[in-house]
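Exam revision sheet. Question 4 asks you to relate a sequence to its structure. Input first:
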Amino acid sequence: MLTDWPRAQGAPLASGVLKAQPEDFVVEEVFDVEFSDDGEFDWLWIEKIGDNTEYLARKLARIAGVQPRAVTYSGQKDRHAVTRQWFCVHLPGKNKPEWRVPENETWRILRQGRHRQKLRLGSHRYNRFILRLSDLKGDVADVETRLPIIATGIPNYFGEQRFGHDGGNIDACRQWFAGEINPARFERSMYLSAARSLIFNTVLAERVTAGTWASGLVGDVFSLRDSGSVFLADIDTEITARLRDGDIHPSGPLFGKVGKLAAAGDTALLEERVYSDFSDMCTGLMKNNLAMERRALRVIPQDVKWQFADDGALSLAFSLPRGCFATALVRELINY
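Answer key, structure tokens:
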């Protein structure tokens, strides 16, 4: 079982249901694209329900008669949700096909175009979410109090889906590092990601408990809001103002071999203490030659809107940068 990471505003006083049905969780990539109308790449804007991204990518490859590696996408999307995202099919030497969705499928093509450029992982900047939280119970007034506060920033936790059912990806990762199993390449990537995410969440949890997740700590490496570029700086009046304005965020580690830029001072001491608690995972990550990266500890949702329905359900809309989890926002509002 995973730890119940601390919330920025303390434990919620209300509970509810997330994803009572797929239509209660809608996510759409925010990604403007202008097609060249020529080239070797077919881009497909697809709405899907009940299929994960990788599964649909393989299905598109079979329809097009190409290898799975010829189909790319910008980001992974939930299975149990309504999702809209771009897929790209490399069709060298082939005319633009007439794409037809087979009968009884739960996905449809909303838009398509031909392009000279390949769609690469991480190309979109934001995801737009529209959620419905149903069966609210407990202190709903507490939810109303929390709603305007989340718009000012939330802890940027990795969501529980990163770790598998009941943390199964973490258990499998430890077995792999101990030499007990030999997972396939895709599984290895998934387990490495889960291990780094667990270490990051643990660092962030300590910072939330200490109240330094948004305000900064001596020795912090700061992350720029838009680009994600990082830099080391002392906390002075300028840094404090940029933190307050949301222009920069404190960052936490995606563990690996340290490069030229590393945390210092109190930040380094805190992170080293967490590394010692996960020494087996850190050793395994080092053996896999991963480089240290940094991820913002805070994320500020954009265009946050909400409305309570007549049946008491909460409709909630917001945008998050790619790689950030809607569940990290929901858990700041309710227990679900």
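Marking note for examiners. Residues 60 and 69 are 11 Å apart (CA to CA).
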